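Hello forum,

I keep getting stuck at the same step: I have a sequence, I want structure tokens, and every attempt I make locally crashes halfway through. Rather than fight my setup again tonight, could one of you with a working pipeline run this one for me? It's a single chain of 295 residues.
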Amino acid sequence: LKNYNLDMIKSGDAVFYLYQVTKEPRFLKAMDTLHKQLEGQPATTEGGYWHKKIYPDQMWLDGVYMAEPFHARYAKYFMNKEAATKIYDKIVLQFDLIEKHNRDPETGLYYHGWDESREQRWADKKTGLSQNFWSRGMGWYGMAMVDVLDYLPEDHPGRERIIGYLNQYAQAIIKYQDTSGTWYQVLNFPGREGNYLEATGSCMFTYTLAKGVAKGYLPERYMENANKAFRGILKEFISVDENGLVNLNQCCAVAGLGGDPYRDGSYEYYINEKIRSNDPKGTGPFILAALELNK
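Reply #2:
Ran it on my machine without issues. Output:
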């Protein structure tokens, strides 16, 4: 609890599954602990969760996916209606604030991070925004929307708002879809020296589009983009070795903002982070996308 790190919340999905299967109290206790973290999570003046306690005043796209689908699910299954509604309101607020602060109205793309204090070196002194549109950051955000909608009640006033955000998001990302069907590491610089087609973000976009259409949140035409993307993933990123092992290549290993050593959010920073194969942040969304497209 003391670290108040949103990345830690995502493990709650696995714990939820274990509790469903075993009904062991220790798994419910673990979920209760994650819920308590979110109830005490440090936040901006508007109520937006800090990504981590060590990153004060900062909202990152990543954190919305790490925290909100779990919290919505927890509220649906373990809270009474009044308490659950309060949680749903907080969840929708996180999306509202990302839309308010991180979305670029010109491109429709989302900046990776926003610093309310404007103190970080990576943050624009006027807007507080980081400099670039990182594909996996946007991928996390898209998956957060389609997954939260699994648990947000039909009659919650924020539900239609999130569906609206998802439609704006889908409209933006298809404009930056490469002819291969996949997406670049830094979305708004296709073909720039050093930029590369990146697997994890491409898989996340594919899952988001496919699930969005399947659930009726997005128009049917986006399924064409999802299928094109999946074909591109198979062609650009998948290899099979001599033992028949399938590999997902060209995965950005990690990216963030600030910290030590300091990550400045520049174009050069994003393109020079380590690239590896079979990163779980890629293989997981790849499997999810495949399942959605084969329903």
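Strands lie at 58-60, 113-115, 238-240, 246-248, 251-252, 275-276. If your local run keeps crashing, start a new thread with the error log.
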